[in-house]
Amino acid sequence: MPEATVPAHTQAGDRSRPRPELGTVFNDIESVKKACAGFRAVFAHLRKEIAKVIVGQDQVVEETLIALFGDGHVLLEGVPGLGKTLLVRTLSRTLTLPFSRIQFTPDLMPADITGTSVVLEDPSTGRRSFSFRPGPIFEQLVLADEINRATPKSQSALLEAMQERSVTVAGETHELRRPFFVMATQNPIEQEGTYPLPEAQLDRFFFKVLVPYTTRGELNDIVGRTTRNLETLVNPILDGPYITQAQRLARRIIVAPHVQDYAVRLVLATHPGSPHADRKTDQYISTGVSPRGAQALICGGKIKALIDGRYAVAFRDIKDVAAPALRHRIIRSFEAAADGITTDDIIRQLIDHLPHEND
C-alpha cells in the first residue's frame, strides 16, 4: 500500500468542517442516541479520510480504529511493503495528537525509548544537577516500527507505558498524557533479523491485526495512483478530548449477561484442562488466553456494535473481534506447529463448537 495521491483541489472543502463533539454528559437515552449517531458519522468520515491514502485493507483499518476507540494498542503484522507503517502515519495525520516514531533496531537501548537523566552544571556556581529528558514514548501517538527487530530488553521498555500509562526512570514515575495509543508494526517471525515478542508484551496489545497481500484490483489502483505527480492532503479530524469522550461513550453500550458469559467461556475454552475446553484445545494449545483477552472481546464488541448502529453487543460482535483479540494471546503446542495449525484455525474451531448458551 504505497502512498496514494489525489488532486489537492478535491480536498479544499474538508478544511472548513467543524471539529466533531460528543458532549460530556450521557444522562438520558436521547443524549446517548445522539452521541452514537455522531460517532458513527465521524467514524465513517475518518475511514474515508484514511482511504485517500490506503487502498483497500478495509478490515485492517476498521480493526485498528476499534483498538483506538477501545483505549487499547494495536500490533500490525505483515511482510515488508504492505503499508503497515503508511497506515499508522496516515492515521496520525487524521488525529491532532503529538506523534513520535521509534525505529526498532538490534542496537536500540531502553533509554532511547523512555528517556534518560542528564547532568547539568550551573556555570555561575559550578553545581551539578540531574535533569530528565523524556524519550519518544511520552508522545500520545507512538509508532513502534518493526518492533520485533529489537532485543527483548528494549521491547520491555514499553511494558509499563502500555499497561499503566506511566514511565519510571531512575526511581521516579512520570504519568503519560491520555489518550495514549501505541501502534506497533512487526514482520513475520520467520524472517531474518527478528526476535519473538515476549508473551507479557503481546498480552498488552488490544488487537493483533494481520495485514494481507493486496488483490489484483487493489494493486492496479495503487500503481495508478502512485505513478502520477499528484499531492495527497489528509485533513486532521479528531483531537484528544473527542477520542476520550468516544471511549467513554463506548463503555455505555450494553452487554447482556449471556453475551458476556459467551465471551468468558470462549476465553476459558483456550485453557487446557478447563471444563470448557475440548480435546483439540488440549492438543493444540500450550498456554491459553489471559483475562485481558476477555476484556478485549467485550470492549471490541462494544465498538463493533456502536459502528453498526446498535446499543447492545450481540454474539456476532464477539465473534467478529475474536481473532484480532485472541490470536496473539494463544501459545500453540509443538503438535499444532508441526501440523500447520494456526491460532486463527484454533479460534475458528472454538467458535464453531462453543454454544451460545451454557448447557
Please give a handful of descriptors for the protein shown.
single chain, 359 residues, alpha/beta, Helicase, Ruva Protein, domain 3, five-stranded parallel β-sheet, two-stranded antiparallel ribbon, 15 helices, 14% strand, globular, disordered N terminus
Structural class from helices and strands? alpha/beta
CATH class of the domain at 253-359: Mainly Alpha
N-end to C-end Cα span: 47 Å
Radius of gyration: 22 Å
Predict the CATH topology of the domain at 253-359.
Answer: Helicase, Ruva Protein, domain 3
- Under the CATH scheme, the architecture of the domain at 253-359 is Orthogonal Bundle
What is the CATH H-level superfamily of the domain at 253-359? Answer: Magnesium chelatase subunit I, C-Terminal domain
Report the sheet with the most strands, covering strand number, pairing sense and barrel closure: 5 strands, parallel
Mean pLDDT comes to 83
Write the element-wise H/E pattern from the N-terminal end onward: HHEHEHEEEHHEEEHEHHHHEHHEHH
**Sequence of strands across the biggest β-sheet:** 2-5-8-1-9
Strand content: 5-15%
Helix content: 40-55%
**CA-based shape:** globular
Q: Supply the number of helical segments.
A: 15
Quick one: how many beta strands?
11
Q: Low-confidence parts lasting 5 or more residues at pLDDT below 50?
A: 1-18
Overview of the molecule:
The chain has 359 residues and is α/β, with parallel strands linked by helices. Strand 3 and strand 4 form a beta hairpin. Helix 10 crosses helix 12, helix 12 packs across helix 13 and helix 13 packs antiparallel against helix 15. The longest helix has 22 residues.
